[in-house]
């Protein structure tokens, strides 16, 4: 039995806003992400080296070739380089919100297929959904691109918290407008 009031369109707005709000709070107000980032000793030197060696914006890699080559191959380096700088924070935030809303649309559609959805079920399903996002979306960066485990684990924790909260809100915000079926 589907929940006729659990609209993916409404869920995209509600769930997307909640997931985005958690992400913004986590990155901008809480200290945990800051602790997973390192700083260069001489940032100007790094920028000058990149400007001289990276002709355009993009993702660059200095691979470790165990067969041996003449160029230095250690350490491993993976860089996302934007030659023109960060850009507009407003545009980045709008795109971030849009991405969360797209995820919330899909997640609301899935939640709407669960018969007898309760607040506890929503929280557990949202937690599991966040774990899936983290395991499939963030952990490969730790495995293949050598992102630090602490940085990656914070992303997983953010996904778990954001989608647990969003799922609870989605299950509750429609309960008053539409009687959800009770579990037997």
Can you tell me about this structure?
This protein has 184 residues and is mainly alpha-helical. It has a two-stranded antiparallel sheet with strand order 1-2. The protein has helices spanning 8-28, 43-53, 89-111, 119-144, 149-173; strands at residues 58-62, 77-81. The radius of gyration is 21 Å and the shape is elongated. The protein is 58% helix and 5% strand.
Mean pLDDT: 85
Strand order of the largest sheet: 1-2
Low-pLDDT parts are none
Count of DSSP E strands?
A: 2
Count of runs of 4 or more consecutive helical residues: 5
Separation of the first and last Cα atoms: 14 Å
The structure class reads mainly alpha
Helix content: 55-70%
Fraction of residues in β-strands: 5-15%
């Amino acid at each position: 039995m589907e929940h006729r009031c659990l609209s993916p369109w409404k869920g995209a707005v509600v769930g997307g806003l909640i997931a985005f709000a958690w992400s913004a709070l986590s990155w901008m107000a809480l200290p945990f992400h800051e602790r997973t980032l390192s700083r260069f000793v001489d940032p100007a030197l790094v920028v000058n080296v990149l400007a001289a060696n990276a002709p355009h914006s993009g993702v660059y890699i200095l691979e470790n070739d165990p067969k041996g080559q003449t160029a230095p191959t250690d350490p491993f380096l993976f860089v996302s380089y934007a030659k023109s700088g960060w850009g507009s924070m407003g545009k980045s935030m709008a795109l971030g919100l849009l991405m969360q809303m797209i995820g919330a649309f899909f997640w609301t559609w899935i939640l709407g297929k669960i018969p007898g959805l309760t607040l506890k079920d929503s929280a557990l399903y949202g937690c599991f959904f966040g774990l899936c996002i983290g395991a499939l979306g963030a952990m490969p960066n730790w495995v293949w691109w050598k992102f630090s485990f602490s940085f990656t684990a914070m992303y997983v924790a953010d996904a778990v918290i954001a989608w647990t909260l969003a799922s609870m809100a989605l299950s509750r915000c429609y309960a008053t407008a539409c009687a959800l079926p009770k579990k037997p």
